[in-house]
Structure formats: C-alpha cells, structure tokens
Amino acid sequence: MPHPTELTVGVLGGMGPLATVDFMDKLVKATPVGAEQEHLHVLVDSNAKVVDRNRAIAGTGPSPGPVLAQMAAGLERSGAGFIVMACNTAHAFDQSIRDAISVPFVSMVEEAADACLREHAGAHRIGVLGAPGCIDSGLYQLALERRGLQPIVLAPDARQGFNALLYQIKLGTPLAQVAPQMKALAQLLIDDGAELLIAGCTEVPLVLGPNDLPRPLLDATLNLARRCVLYARGIAPLPVQTC
C-alpha cells in the first residue's frame, strides 16, 4: 500500500493531449509497484483549451499564464502535493503558476538540464529540439548555461520546419509520416556538434527515440516522470526554486 506521507502529483496537461497521455504512460511505467494500489495518486487537468504558447511568446496571441495559474490552483485545492507540467514551451509562463500556488512547481526544463549533468557527464554541447517559443524564450539555453553547458539550437528556418511538424502531430497526422523529418532535424543539431540531444518538446518523443540517432537523446518527458516518482515517495527532496 502507498506510504501515508506519499505526495499526490498534480499535472498540468492538454498541451497537447497526446503528449499528456505519453507523460502519464511513462509515469505509470516508471513507478515500481507490487500491487495496483501502490501506484501514485495523480491529478491531471488536461486542458486543450489553453491558448497557443508559441503565439503568446511571439506577441501575436494572449498569454496562457492566467489559465495555467487557475489550473494549478485547482490541482492544489484538490490535494496535489506538487505540480508539474507536460509542456516545455509553457514553462515560459511558469512564474504565473508559482505565484498561484503554495506547493512546489517542478520544472521539466530544469530537471532535464540537471539530467544532462547527472546522466551524461561527458557531454558539453547540448542540442535542443524545441518549439520556436521554447527556443525564443531561452528556456533551455539559460538552464544549460547556468550549468556550464553549451546549448545548440536549430537555425530559424529549421525551427519553423520543426514548428510545422509539431502542429502536424497535434492535429493527428500519422506519427510514422512525421518521424523521418524529425530525425532529419535532429541530425542537423548533431552536424552542428551536439554531443547529446534533449527532446525539449513533449511531441518529440512521440516520433523520435534514443535508437534513432547516432548521439544520445534525453527524453525530458520520461525524465520528469522518473523524478516525479522520487519526489512523490520522498526518495529525493523536492527541488528548491533558485532562479
């Protein structure tokens, strides 16, 4: 049975829905159990109505901050002991979430940057496969640079190509059709010297796996799922926000 002090996980999702399902699948599979009842208590707000994060960052659409804050507050009221979000780009608005809750918000971006040091200590040049808004807001670049790592991102034209693939996935294009183009974009980062790649958009792991590339691929979604298990069960202390 679950330990009485085990924390309930709150998940901000729906951005997009398939990526949230992927996160939940990885969370279940990352949880060691001896019985069904030992799985974590997880509260998920899968809200596909959240406005477009890329357009908000580009200044062509409204901010998702207010609705993300409302979602997070609702999860806390429902009993979440900490909050995570299954969308990388939306982390550009994470301050709105933090301001709305009293429980910790665990950043997918910061966790992935930590994993680069923890699991790939020899890699210094880190390629980031992220949506234009994620890259334009510098989420991964700043997180990696704070850890002494060098981020590598796609050129602007390739970034727009990535964005087109992202929306194809969100709109239900068969994943097998998208996969070769995503692999080609990843190869551009490797050609630019990336020693390790981060799947810095939750749609990327849907079409690209670690065996598809000649360099390691860090799945930020899977990494977050594994960290949630450690935090919920008290195996590792929840991170303290310092930036």
How would you sum up this structure, described in words?
With 243 residues, this protein is of the alpha/beta class. The chain has two domains: 9-108 and 222-232, Rossmann fold; 109-220, Rossmann fold (3-Layer(aba) Sandwich). It has helices at residues 17-29, 53-58, 65-77, 94-100, 108-119, 132-136, 139-146, 156-170, 175-191, 220-232; strands spanning 9-13, 42-46, 82-85, 125-129, 150-153, 196-199, 217-219. The strands form two sheets. The chain has a four-stranded parallel sheet, sandwiched between helices. A three-stranded parallel sheet has the order 2-1-3, sandwiched between helices. The chain starts with 8 loop residues before the first strand and ends in an 11-residue tail after the last helix. The mean pLDDT is 94.
**Strand residues, percent:** 5-15%
Tell me, rounded to a whole number, the average pLDDT. Answer: 94
Q: Which class best fits the helix and strand makeup?
A: alpha/beta
* Number of DSSP strand runs: 7
Distance between the termini: 37 Å
Q: Helix and strand string, N-terminal first?
A: EHEHHEHHEHHEHHEEH
Topology:
Elements: E1 9-13, H1 17-29, E2 42-46, H2 53-58, H3 65-77, E3 82-85, H4 94-100, H5 108-119, E4 125-129, H6 132-136, H7 139-146, E5 150-153, H8 156-170, H9 175-191, E6 196-199, E7 217-219, H10 220-232
Parallel strand pairs: 1-2, 1-3, 4-5, 4-6, 6-7
Helix pairs in contact: 1-10, 3-4, 5-7, 5-10, 8-9
